[in-house]
Amino acid sequence: MAARVILLPGDGIGPEIIGSAVEVLRAVGAELEFEEHVFGGASIDAHGVALTDDTLTACRAADAVLLAAVGGPQWDTTDPARPRPEQGLLGLRKGLGLFANLRPVRPLPALYDASPLKRELIERVDLLVVRELTGGIYFGEKTRSDDAASDACVYTREEIERIARVAFGAARSRVTSVDKANVLETSRLWREVVRGVHGSEFPNIELEHLLVDNAAMRLIGAPRHFDVILTENMFGDILSDEAAMLSGSIGLLPSASLGVPGPGLFEPVHGSAPDIAGKGVANPIAMILSSALMLRHALSLEEQAAAVESAVDRALAEGLRTPDLGGAAGTAEATQAILKYL
């Protein structure tokens, strides 16, 4: 029986790059059935909201959800009463119970020189950011008046325990838990709970604690130090984008958002890039690698996932370069270069 995948092209370059991922998924031999829904800004234009009930229901009933990108200047607003595309993303994470965001960062040897960092700093970097996705300041109670505003940052012991287990389970040798425990009460609870999960369930994995500012500096100065970085929602959002630049371009990095039970959500780390939308020059690699994470984590198709990742590695090794990597290959040309090695 074919696995059911919901496609959410979203906005900007989204429809272009999700088409590339579908081409690759069809070519790799996975038995998949696709169903497309509008989402984000496109859904605001069509339905007045970024995420409709029908789309959420379809996602809940699927085996996996593949999302391209959301957002654009036409929907930017500071009016709290007006819908924003990002509300759809937050609603989808909450509606599907997606509490764990996994962002692998592994600069490829063929692209070492594309990174803004020196080759000797990024050689052999292979790290994973595990970001808590449904708690913290993004989901806390919000207030707004003419002269003041507030966003509550709240975490429970249960929320911290479950994301900590994901991080320790993914680690080869070390988990670096990132917080701001010298200032924030939520971070003090975070540190206490992570320490407890480590001692009782994962004593063979090394645990260290870093303040978020120190972690941000060390990501640039000594990225090979990290194995798994565990952190809360906002810190993880910022640090994972910083880590993305180790690879040379944010256009290369995939992500997986997982919950138990239910379908996972798989999407590139980058945004909708409205400045290049419709020009056929968007880098589809992060979208294609996100589909590989979907094959692995949602559908247990490890062989097909590895084949997609290998095809990307080989295409880049043979000289594939999109404009963000200093080359001239457009979306279609990049897709064909990857398909060649499947």
Characterise the protein shown here.
- It is a single chain.
- The protein is α/β, with parallel strands linked by helices.
- It has 2 domains: 1-107 and 248-342, Isopropylmalate Dehydrogenase (3-Layer(aba) Sandwich), CATH 3.40.718; 116-247, Isopropylmalate Dehydrogenase (3-Layer(aba) Sandwich).
- The chain has helices spanning 14-27, 41-47, 53-61, 85-96, 119-122, 157-170, 185-201, 212-221, 233-244, 285-297, 302-317, 331-339; strands at 3-10, 32-36, 64-69, 100-105, 127-132, 142-144, 149-151, 174-179, 206-211, 228-231, 254-258, 264-268.
- Helix 1 links the parallel strand 1 (3-10) and strand 2 (32-36).
- Helix 1 (14-27) packs parallel to helix 12 and helix 11 packs across helix 12.
- The protein is globular, with a radius of gyration of 20 Å.
Number of distinct helices: 12
CATH architectural group of the largest domain: 3-Layer(aba) Sandwich
Poorly predicted segments: none
Main sheet attributes: strand count, strand direction, barrel closure = 10 strands, mixed
Helix content range: 40-55%
| Average residue-wise pLDDT | 94
Structural class of the helices, strands and pairings? alpha/beta
* Straight-line N-to-C gap: 23 Å
Q: Trace the largest sheet across and list its strands.
A: 2-1-3-12-11-4-5-10-8-9
Number of strands: 12
The backbone outline, from C-alpha atoms, is globular
What is the H/E string?
EHEHHEHEHEEEHEHEHEHEEHHH
CATH superfamily of the largest domain: Isopropylmalate Dehydrogenase
**CATH class term of the largest domain:** Alpha Beta
Strand content of the residues, in percent?
A: 15-25%
Radius of gyration: 20 Å
- The fold-level CATH name of the largest domain is Isopropylmalate Dehydrogenase
